Amino acid sequence: MPIKSYLAHPHQGRKEELVTAISEIQGCDVVSAKNEEILVVVTETENKEEEEVLKIKFDAIESLKLLAMVSGFNTPKEH
Amino acid sequence: MYTSTTNRRSFIKKMAMLSAMTAAATMFPGILFAEEQERGLPKGSLLNWKKAPCRFCGVGCGVLIGIEKGKAVAVKGDPKSTVNKGLCCVKGYHSVIAMYGKDRLTKPLVKKNGKYVETSMKEALDLIASKMKETIKDFGKDSVSIYGSGQWTIPDGYVASKLFKGCIGTNNVEANARLCMASAVTGFLTSFGLDEPMGCYEDIDHANVYVLWGNNMAEMHPVLFSRMLDQRLKRAAKIIDFTTRTTRTSMAADKSILFLPQTDLAVGNAICYEIIKNGWVHTSFVEKHCNFSKGLTNMGYGLEDNFKFKDRPEKIDFETYKEFLNDYTPEKVEKMSGVSAKDIKYLAAYYGDPNKKVMSFWCMGPNQHSRGTWMNNIIYNIHLLTGKISTPGNSPFSLTGQPSACGTVREVGTLTHKLPHGVVMNKKHREFAAKIWEVPVENIDPKPTYHTVEMFRALDRGDIRFMWIQVTNPMVTMPKLKRYRDGANKEGRFIVVSDIYPTPTTDIADVILPSAMWIEREGMYGNSERRTQYFEQMVSPPGEAMSDTWQLIEVAKRMGFEKQFYYKEATHIEEIYKEYQRHHVGKKHNMAPLEVLKKQPGAMWPYVDGKSTKWRFNSKYDPACTNGKDFHFYGKPDGKAIIWQRPYEPAAESPDKEYPYWLCTGRVLEHWHTGSMTRRIPVLHKAMPHSYVELNPEDAKRMQIRTGDKVKLTTRRGEIILPVAINQRGIPAPMQVFVPFFDENLLINDITLDSFCPISKEPDYKKCAVKLEKV
After folding, report:
1. Which class would CATH give B661-774?
2. Per-residue pLDDT tens for B544-591?
3. Is A3–B27 a contact, with Cβ atoms under 8 angstroms apart?
4. For testing the chain A interface, which of B31, B226, B669, B688 should be mutated: the one with the most A CBs within 10 Å?
């Protein structure tokens, strides 16, 4: 079960829009910096296939300028 | 590591979140996530947050540890700490995971017929005490030794020194800090007569310019580097990187200046030349507060056993010093250093500008240097000539790499020549220590024995027969390692290793003692800015693991020193600290009471009248100044600091036809020193799984080598095969290579050279000659 964290950079002036868009995706936690145009995103998926689906969803977000991965973990499924 | 996968997943999610926040903090200094950090914690958790200094580097960040059901499960920066102001680096955020590696040592192990056998702590301690007594009886008191580190807590180092120097009567006490900051110590002592920085981290908030002398702060001291970046954003402060290799620091700096290895000596002198030539000397400061001296030259490099050197300082005048600097005009130095005369003048102009406050930072570059003491002296010369010292923002600042290199090794004095107050060579200092220790003064030997390299040579020769190694990993860190590994494995040697994980050093042990780590016991660390920080025991150590302090006390009692080691188990840390404080009583080094340290994120000595001293030697801030002037360098008998005439001299080994490249070794952001802890933190291990060799892209192109290819590095000591990294983390200059030393499977120190600064005895890990071959 992969857990990954990213830094998400919004297009200028579209930070709130990006927060909303990512928050609506299942398996994503998003934290917005208070004083900078950047978000921290943590994703939790069941498997690689779900991760691929997630990537497609991210690609479709218009307010997202850049998504940079910071860390990646794989961990046993929750009981 | 964790029994519940739910907990583990929550923990990992939180760590993933914190990793990203850390990365963001590096890119955007001052970025705020504070509330979100709390929100990101496992839901429903009842964390009990307790304060501690970070376990890793010498910056000494204040951290808050989240304890849940007897386990440390979270870390965040302590917003109350003036060191890091709530920031934390990637190692700090993940530090608690290092306590829960699956191969943690939990039982004492004794080597029997070549195999390690589990035994009880009582039996192991009995064996150590009897072996020490037997060795002393057969070979004399100087046949036993202890080798600790700047990760020793203050009580660990204190009881080690008391047992060996005060009770057994041998000065065979050394610590790995000899390998990383001994040159800083001798630099301070020769220039000022007293050790440790006069300024503090608050200087960062006042300085206009930061000059980093061979110091990759973005990776090694990332929190302080973030504070500098923050000041650049707020006040347009400048960061100048003076380096032999392009690093993350270079990329973030306003200007990066490359110099050829060892020529920093010449460039430093050229800056002094320019300061004098352009009339930038702060004449009244120099006249009132400085003397000029020179020492011996052509000192050698310590390559042979029993090498001896003693400097003979000689007073000179300003005119003699000025004439000496004529050999270091920017134009002359350009030819030897590769630094353009224009860049030398650029650096000098910042130091010389009376309207600019300048901080110099350095760490391993000038310290791990065959002329390390001289290099430290030269940086002080620049600050003394311009009077830019001991005032907010004007600060030559020597950084350290371990959490208590200052607090334990330098202040407690766990080096062969040192006592907690003063040196063994001084009769009054011996008498003072003996009185507090309640031992006959004759017990304390007036002659120092072995510095670290010589101590391991003595082990190889058989002059030392017993060595107790605590909280350090010399079988990864010693230069020219093979000799010292073979020596330690010889017949008739008895080695005890206290550690938390198996390492190449536990491989040479006859007895392995499992140690309690960091917040599994109570203790104090002292950081680079003279700040002493206390931490309570927050969780239980695993199995029979025991603090290094208590291991030493138990052995001391078994050796018959019950009177001196009277401490009670429940209160021994408090008792030891109170006893230790007595060594430093007075306005020059008074330590804060334990009650104060328990309440706040540390205090800086000298702690006088309930206040930390931020700037020593400045009468406005330092109550120990008594000469009635604005500054008082009271470490020297006449109250004046010394500007030293120190020339350029070449390294012990330079590239030639057979070995045409320079080899430099060092650290990486993710791993702390030998990686014995950080390589057990999955996120850090995955980020940096193994060592590598960095090549200059042009050299690689010429040799048709690409990233991932393997090359053989050969020096006169041996050879090693490493994967290549080109244009990755760092970029060495042409004909230079860089290898990090954290990887115990790829021991770069098997091929480094054990040359050292003859004054500080600190090895030069930054320079030797190497040959490369594609394999």
Report:
1. mainly beta
2. 999 999 999 999 999 999 999 999 999 999 999 999 999 999 999 999
3. no
4. B31
